[in-house]
Amino acid sequence: MSPVFPMLTVLTMFYYICLRRRARTATRGEMMNSHRTIESNSRTSPLHAEVVQYAKEVVDFSSHYGSENSMSYTMWNLAGVPNVFPSSGDFTQTAVFRTYGTWWDQCPSASLPFKRTPPNFQSQDYVELTFEQQVYPTAVHVLETYHPGAVIRILACSANPYSPIPPAEVRWEILWSERPTKVNASQARQFKPCIKQINFPTNLIRLEVNSSLLDYYTELDAVVLHGTKDKPVLSLKTSLIDMNDLEDDDYEEKDGCGMDSLNKKFSSTALREGPNNGYFDKLPYELIQLILNHLTLPDLCRLAQTCKLLNQHCCDPLQYIHLNLQPYWAKLNDTSLEFLQSRCTLVQWLNLSWTGNRGFISVAGFSRFLKVCGSELVRLELSCSHFLNETCLEIISEMCPNLQDLNLSSCDKLPPQAFNHIAKLCGLRRLVLYRTKIEQTALLSILNFCSELQHLSLGSCVMIEDYDVIASMIGAKCKKLRTLDLWRCKNITENGIAELASGCPLLEELDLGWCPTLQSSTGCFARLARQLPNLQKLFLTANRSVCDTDIEELACNCTRLRQLDILDDSSPF
Fold first, then answer.
1. Choosing a second label site near 158 at 20 to 30 A (CA), which of 42, 494, 559, 562?
2. 411, 388 contact by CB (below 8 A)
3. Tens digits of per-residue pLDDT, 2-18?
4. Are strands 125-146 and 219-228 parallel, antiparallel or unpaired?
5. What is the largest CA-CA distance in the chain?
6. Facing residues of 95 across strands?
7. Which residue from 538, 535, 485 is spatially nearest to 505, judged by alpha carbons?
8. CA of 275: how far to CAs of 230, 282, 308, 463, in Å?
9. CA distance linking residue 243 with residue 21, whole number of Å
């Protein structure tokens, strides 16, 4: 009898045992869940009592619909007990992200996507919450009160934000993840995904969302963390091989956000020696490069360890013209950047959004990387990169002379004086300063020297004193401007709008949502319609003065208009 058949029999029996044990594990888990107790009313020993707690504080987030000086529709509403749940509907006491649907990516201001983005990374926004006590999580419940279904990933962090002692190591672990799915209901629900067990206690939870399939803004009311103070005995389920773990789409998420041991792969020099490289020796160099363009960054690093020929191709700087490191924010650190340096000397597009927080990337590490890899940079994405300081912006202005696209969205920890360095980047065409602390003097300097600007986002920039002065400078200096975001600027008037309309005739997108000082009676909206015929998107959200005449002027003059928001909202600003 051939030795193959006994091996197949053994594998079949092993697979059958796994399925049986998984079934028993599931039954055991259901029994445990049905007998789960709350610490304040527990009949079991304190060792196994469950702690149930609401979020104590919101410590970081990427965007929100609300104002920086208000509580309406802000992420800060996620802290504490529910304000709305179990009621359904649109309530100002909930947390709402800035956008929903696919229209955001169809605006003139939308940026082109990065190549080599892993298909399983689809997060668009995030929010991080802290809790009073560190626990080993057994459940995370999200109270959604309007258009649920945006949450696609939940993570836990080993660092305790309230500890006075800095941790020796910071780890993020995925508790649950799923691709975006359409929820055909807008009513409130208590979202209770089945999370995996982890081997460290946590009081820092991160929710990542994707709102692309939603018909309206999702609204979140509270987050509940269930857990035990003592490390639980891992169930059989966590120690067995899960056949779903072997799926290609999930591989990188099961491997610690796709960057576990990637630093080792960067630096590995042990290549397999073989008699030949198969038929790859016969292929043109350019064809192999084209084939490798379809690999993700971790796969490229793995392939570099197979043979000398493929190592040469995988380390070619031409493979790193577009480098998207955002999907690996949970693991990317100074060591990663150091190993990437030699490969990224020709990088033109670089995405470091969400990376480097909690000490993962230092100012020195970032500076070293840009000094080697910044000369060819055209686009730099740094959204929510809280390691940035004034030195970093100075390095960017000195090392990136060809930079045209800079995104500092939600870098709210940057000091106001840091923005003065941006004025040195005279070739900028796109600048995103949403939710930053830029002040009027620095912004005026930028507008004066960066006359090539085509896209400018100043949404929720609360440190600017007089937006009419800013609008006047934009109209005088930025003649090529195509898109302008003035979301929630509190003091722009019809005078500033007149300067914009006369000085920037190429405008295709203008966001004046939640600008309470604009009044239709002054004729400002009708003037916009007559002087800006190229408008494709116009937001006048929450402006109750918009009248029929304004709509008629828009219909007659702005024939290319595709997106118009005149949502009337009587809620407080």
1. 42
2. yes
3. 444 444 444 444 444 44
4. antiparallel
5. 94
6. 220
7. 535
8. 55, 15, 12, 66
9. 13
Residues forming beta bridges with residue 510, ordered by sequence position:
484, 538
Q: How many residues does the chain have?
A: 573
Looking at the predicted structure, is the pLDDT value of residue 254 above 90?
no
- Write out the two tokens for 127: 């929010």
Separation CA 380–CA 349 (nearest Å): 6
E-strand stretches of 147-255:
151-157, 172-177, 189-191, 202-209, 219-228
Residue 428 CA to residue 453 CA, distance in Å, equals 6
Instruction: Decide: 53 and 224 in contact? Cβ < 8 Å.
Output: yes
Provide the pLDDT for residue 235. 53
State the pTM of this model.
Answer: 0.86
377 with 400: CB under 8 angstroms? yes
Q: Quick one: how far is CA 501 from the chain centroid?
A: 33
Residues linked to residue 172 through DSSP beta bridges, in sequence order: 157
Q: Which tokens is 454 given?
A: 């085509």
Residues 314/303, Cβ–Cβ less than 8 Å: yes
Q: What are phi and psi of 412, to 5 degrees?
A: -80, 0
Rounded to whole angstroms, the Cα distance separating 542 from 395 reads: 40
Distances (CA, A) of 366 to 104, 187, 333, 341, 544: 30, 45, 9, 11, 46
**Does residue 248 have a pLDDT over 80?**
no
Phi-psi map region of 383: left, alpha, beta (phi>0 left; psi -120 to 50 alpha): beta
Angle (CA) 264 267 273, round 5°:
100
Contacts of 397 (CB under 8 A, 6+ apart): 421, 422, 424, 425
- What is the DSSP code (8-state) at residue 38? B
d(CA 487, CA 516): 11
Average pLDDT over residues 93-115: 95
Asked whether 201 and 228 are in contact (CB, 8 A), the reply is no
Pairing of strands 151-157, 322-324: unpaired
Question: Residue 348, by phi and psi: left (phi above 0), alpha (psi -120 to 50) or beta?
Answer: alpha
Amino acid at 402: N
- Report yes or no: 400 and 380 within 8 Å, Cβ to Cβ: yes
For the cut 90, the answer to whether the pLDDT of residue 41 exceeds it is: no
Of the candidates 240, 69, 217, 81, the residue with the CA atom closest to the CA atom of residue 146: 217
Rounded CA-CA distance 430/369 in Å is 23
Selection from 200, 227, 65 nearest residue 141 by Cα:
227
Question: Are the C-beta atoms of 394 and 367 separated by less than 8 Å?
Answer: no
Burial degree of 55 (CB within 10 A; 0-12, 13-18, 19+): buried
Query: What single-letter amino acid sits at 391?
Result: T
Q: In the numeric block, which tokens belong to residue 179? A: 């691709």
pLDDT exceeds cutoff 80 at 359: yes
How far is the C-alpha of 516 from the C-alpha of 511, rounded, in Å? 13
Q: Which helix (H) or strand (E) holds 451?
A: none
Four-CA torsion 208, 214, 218, 223, nearest 10 degrees? -40
Strands 202-209 and 151-157, how do they pair?
Answer: antiparallel
